[in-house]
Each structure stands twice: as structure tokens, then as C-alpha cells.
Structure of Succinate-semialdehyde dehydrogenase:
Amino acid sequence: MARVPKLNDPSLLKLGVCYVNGEWVKAASGKTFEVTDPSTGALIGSVPEFDVADLEPAFAAAQAAFQTFKKSTGRQRSKLLRKWYDLMMENADDLATLITWENGKPLTEAKGEVAFAANFFEWFAEEAPRVYGDNIPASVPGNRIITTKEPVGVVGILTPWNFPAGMITRKIAPALAAGCTVVCKAPGETPLTGLAVAELAHRAGIPKGVVNIITTLDNTPDVGKAMCTHSVVRKVSFTGSTAVGKLLMQQSSADLKVLSMELGGNASFIVFDDADLDLAVAGAVACKFRSSGQTCVCANRIYVQRGILDEFTRRFIAQVQQFKQGNGFEAGVTHGPLIHERAVRKVDSHVQDAVKKGGRVVVGGKPTPHLGANFYLPTVITGVTADMAIASEETFGPIAGIFTFDSEAEVVRLANNTKHGLASYFYSKDIHRVGRVAEALEVGIVGVNTGIISDASSPFGGIKHSGFGREGSKYGIEEYLHIKAVTYGGMGGPLQN
């Protein structure tokens, strides 16, 4: 029988309610949907199935709160975000437990996510008082031009399940720092972490209506459309697939909303023959298999220069063979389940396609149903070629496909041969090569001699079909601000006696 996790503070587990206008409310219909543990399939509990009508009070609350919140000072908003950060850190163990319970990632990894998520509150607490305008020299004598920055308004936020805490805080933190209010749809697969974060917002004293966090599953398409079409919402921030991002853009066009889109990826991971192999192997393992490969910046295509191919592959395989799959709460487990059976089917289809086209499975390559329906062995495939699905589609699972290449020019061409442009990684000791390749890669984020690139202080976002806009860093708050130019005439002339 599966062990039921225990929380130090059981009140952080919010079942049957969403957070709207500072209160915990049910869906008007009374409908709910079930949240299950992906490791065991066991029921955790149920949360509200909000529909479009349920959104109206949330939008109204956010709009009413915005009229006051936009006038608060950056320092006032900073103190609220800092308190929220402190509460997340104080409750880090419980938040990590919720993440592992509903997402499946190992507890150690979940604890890392909580720290990562909380860091956005800390970072933007420090950015909130530093929203500066400019004094611009005018071309007309006697005129003076200044610019100010103002919050865009109510923000609709749509987040994915793979980082149930991190994706919510990465969007809400800069929105609040700028003076916006938010209506956030927590992911249907992993809503409990977001609701716990909402409870901590309440405890932090975030004013009523400033933060609203709701849940839905079957009604997700309608709720997403409402976010994009409702006149109260002035900006939509979305993290998810490119296909859904395109649909949301279309739906937002009639109302000309401000958009931030963090979409799909197909990251290349390049190892040149002058690389530090130990560093490169460790980076590839961490980058590819983090969260069982379920991140948008995971290495999707591993390119290894021919002269070191055999040695890199040998060391890489040895590392993967040390993994331990299982329930994320079990000691020593390094990798948990995929989020659901559909993900398992997609991963297996990529493996079968590669094998059919000449690829060789050297590790894994099959589901592990004795562990549970959502488990798939971490897999390494050699002899991968450009005609295989893994070369052009985002796998979002624990498959490492190893390609080979001969020249710098060749591998950059291969790396850029994708519609996506989110992240890319490469390893080299040659400083001149580092400069050339980093500039030539067509992505928004480059990791040089590292496989981990996410940081609250670094701008995160892509180009091409990976979207637009940046999250985190000093640039992240700009996504939630308008620039207003004010020109003063008649300011010249002599002083009056």
C-alpha cells in the first residue's frame, strides 16, 4: 500500500477550493476533478473544475484591486514579495512534498525547485523599487521629455505541470513587482502546489484580489480562451507547447493583448573534441535527465565530435546505469515517473522510430510497468540520424539520442536546423571557438561548459517557434510595464525677475 505523505502544516493542502479575492471558494457548479500521484496512481484529492463563469469574480477582483495596487510604491510591493519569499522558505519541506506527491520528481529535486521558485520572489522584491524612467533631451527648444513606466494591468497567467511552483512564481513575482494584479490558472495535472503558494500569499498579506489562483482540467481550453479575450485582462503570459501558444496568440489578437510566450524547445548539446570530458558528461546527464527529461530546456539532441564519440558514450552510459527509478519519496531514487501514460506512449514512439531507422538502444528503451504505469527507463540511443523523430520533435522524456559530427560549421548547421530556438549547450576549452559558436547558435539561451542555465538573475526565453519575451533578471519586470512619454512645452526662456 502506498505511503501517504505527511505535511508539517496540513493546512497547506487545499482541496475542493480555489483562491479568489482573498478567499477560498468552490466552483459555482460544484464540479471537481481528481489529482493523482503519478508514481502510484493513487488519489490525492479533488480540486474545483472552474469554468468561464467562475472566472468573472476573479477578473473583477483583479481589476478592482489593480486600481489601488498600481498606486502602491515599489518599496511597499518589495516588502510583500520579501514576506512571501520568507514564507516559502519556511515551508520549503511541505512545498517539496506536494511537488513530489503530485508531479513525481524525486524529493531532493523538488526541494531544489522550491528554492528556485522562491528566488523569484526575492529577486523581484529587489527589482520592484528600481523601475526607472528617463529624462530625454528634446529636439524642440523649450520642450522637456520624461518617461515613466506603468503596470500593464490585469495579467492572465497559464502555467505548465513540470515545475508546479517555479513556473507560477517566475510569472507572478515580476507582475506584482511592476504593480500588476493576476489571475493564474494552475496546471491541471499539478494544481496543489500552486494552491499552497496562494495560501502563503494570503499569509504574507498580499491584498485581496491582487493574486487569484484557480484550477481547471476539462475546461482548460475555454478558460484559456477567456484569458485571451476578456476585456479586463491586458496581458497574457503562457508557458507550454508551441501549438497552444499559437492558438492563444490568435485568440488574443482581437483585443491586442500584451503577450509573453515561453514555448517548446529542441535543445542541442554539443561536445567538441577539446572539451573537458568529465565536465561534459556530468553536464549532459544533468541537462538531459533532470525531471526525467520533462523540461523545455533539456538536451534533446546530443552531438559529439567523432574523435571522442566512443569515450564520451562509454562514460555517459556508465552514469545513466547508476540511476535508480522509483517513487520520489524513496531514499536513493534519482528519477521518478513521467507525468501520465500519454507521455510514456510518446517517449516509446520516439524510441521505436529510432530503432526502426537504424538507431541502437544501449541503455533502457522500454517502460517499467512493475514500478507503475507512468515509468519509462532512462534510455540512451546511439547512431541517431536527422531523419528520426527525436531529431526534430521535442521528446519531453528520458531519451538521450547521441549524434556525431566532424566540424564546427557542420554541427552549428545541425543545431540550428530546427523551428525552435530556446536553448543550446556546448563544451569546449577553446576561447575563440566559444565566442564563435555562442554567437552562431540561433537560440535565446546558451550554456557554455554547463548544463544548468536557469537562474532568477538570468533572462529566460527563446526565439523562433520557442516564443518571445523574457522571464527573470532585470528584463523580466519590463514585460509587465508600459512606457509613458510626457512632453512639457514652454519650459525654456529666461528666468523671470
